[in-house]
């Protein structure tokens, strides 16, 4: 575990000489699919009504797939090996009948996912692959019929249908993020984990000109890591270094597994009301009581990421609570607020910040009880000026420098000992 994490824990022990087990983090370990060749999904459509609905994917070859139902809200998850979604330029996913809406994307290296949001509880009538013949694409067909809530709940968590991937291999290619780097950090340097938000099937906010939050924050996260690496003061890791989905619980688990001394989650906001005038960066720390309405609304949207990604919460452990953990949380919160204040002061001279830029809300991704954690909103993709600015190399240089300066101030004592 990292140096600051140790300091927090030992500080609590000085007041209470207790040896309790610390809280378990939320973790979802989905079944992996892998395939040697990447298949191309070229089209998709929904047909039918509220009694019976058919979902069809057109592909250039047969692939293995798995289906599962998730509740609260009702969803059908289609897991695929690695595929390339290459829809026509004007393609927009549209729902119909029992399918309210749907989305698609990478879930991890070697795996893709389609998530159907359902208007009502359903049952799987049948599913099959139609081989491509006479110039027609291979088609994955899924037929759904209306059912009762009780029948739907019985199916939740079960593998409804699954076929073996054609040409499957026994392993999933590994990425370059923390997920691919097992075990804690090996040096005595402070450990920083940078968490580019969203990814894969979860695009996050979308700007008025089509800018995707998941792409903006990944680029910024890589750039910030590179700058911190060059200093030689820290060990720096990314939770993701490609376009993959990670559950919120896995992000915090990865940081704690590295013994992180600091966790920085990177995002870009979007709002509807006041989009033309609301712009600028902000930084959030954890609080069960949101500092304002905007903070509360943002936390709700960000905490919805797992639902977007089709994460099953049924096996999540309940959080352990005791006096030692509560003391640790308080100390961690103080470290988090201290770092957040340093960032705000640096950002004020580097970019536009919103009114009252230091805020708090109940972000799931900030809930590591012993790792100082903040969430930085780089700007508002819903604002045309901010959207343009977030793609600027000059802006990225200034803002990353500001965060680096704040980080150096936060770890000044530790750096002086090196």
UniProtKB/TrEMBL annotation:
Its EC number is 3.5.1.28. InterPro entries: AMIN_dom, MurNAc-LAA_cat, N-acetylmuramoyl_amidase_3. Residues 252-408 form the MurNAc-LAA domain. The keyword Nucleotide-binding does not apply. It catalyses: Hydrolyzes the link between N-acetylmuramoyl residues and L-amino acid residues in certain cell-wall glycopeptides. It comes from Pseudovibrio japonicus. Keywords: Hydrolase. It is an enzyme of class 3 (hydrolase). It holds the Pfam family Amidase_3. This is N-acetylmuramoyl-L-alanine amidase. The keyword Hydrolase applies.
């Amino acid at each position: 575990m990292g140096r600051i994490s140790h300091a927090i824990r030992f500080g609590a022990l000085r007041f209470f000489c207790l040896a309790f087990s610390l809280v378990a983090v939320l973790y979802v370990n989905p079944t992996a699919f892998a395939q040697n060749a990447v298949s191309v999904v070229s089209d998709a459509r929904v047909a039918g009504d509220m009694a019976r609905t058919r979902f069809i994917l057109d592909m250039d070859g047969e692939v293995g797939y798995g289906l599962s139902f998730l509740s609260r809200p009702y969803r059908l998850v289609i897991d695929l090996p690695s595929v390339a979604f290459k829809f026509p330029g004007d393609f927009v996913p549209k729902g119909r009948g029992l399918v309210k809406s749907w989305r698609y994307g990478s879930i991890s290296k070697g795996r893709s996912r389609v998530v159907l949001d359902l208007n009502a509880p359903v049952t799987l009538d049948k599913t099959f692959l139609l081989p491509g013949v006479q110039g027609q694409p291979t088609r994955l067909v899924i037929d759904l019929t209306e059912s009762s809530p009780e029948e739907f709940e019985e199916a939740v968590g079960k593998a409804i249908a699954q076929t073996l991937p054609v040409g499957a291999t026994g392993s999933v290619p590994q990425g370059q993020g923390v997920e691919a780097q097992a075990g804690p950090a090996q040096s005595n340097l402070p450990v920083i984990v940078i968490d580019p938000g969203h990814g894969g099937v979860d695009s996050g906010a979308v700007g008025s000109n089509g800018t995707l939050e998941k792409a903006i924050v990944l680029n910024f996260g890589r750039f910030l890591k590179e700058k911190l690496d060059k200093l030689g003061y820290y060990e720096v890791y990314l939770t993701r270094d490609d376009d993959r989905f990670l559950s919120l619980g896995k992000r915090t688990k990865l940081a704690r597994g590295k013994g992180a001394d600091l966790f920085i989650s990177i995002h870009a906001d979007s709002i509807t009301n006041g989009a033309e005038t609301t712009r600028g960066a902000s930084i959030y720390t954890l609080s069960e009581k949101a500092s304002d309405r905007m903070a509360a609304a943002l936390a709700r949207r960000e905490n919805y990421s797992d639902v977007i990604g089709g994460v099953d919460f049924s096996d999540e452990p309940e959080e352990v609570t005791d006096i030692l953990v509560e003391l640790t949380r308080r100390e961690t919160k103080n470290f988090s607020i201290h770092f957040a204040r340093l960032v705000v002061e640096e950002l004020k001279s580097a970019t536009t910040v919103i009114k009252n830029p230091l805020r708090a809300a109940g972000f799931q991704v900030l809930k590591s009880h012993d790792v100082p954690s903040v969430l930085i909103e780089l700007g508002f993709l819903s604002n045309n000026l901010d959207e343009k600015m977030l793609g600027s190399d000059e802006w990225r240089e200034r803002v990353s420098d500001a965060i680096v300066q704040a980080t150096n101030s936060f770890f000044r004592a530790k750096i002086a000992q090196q």
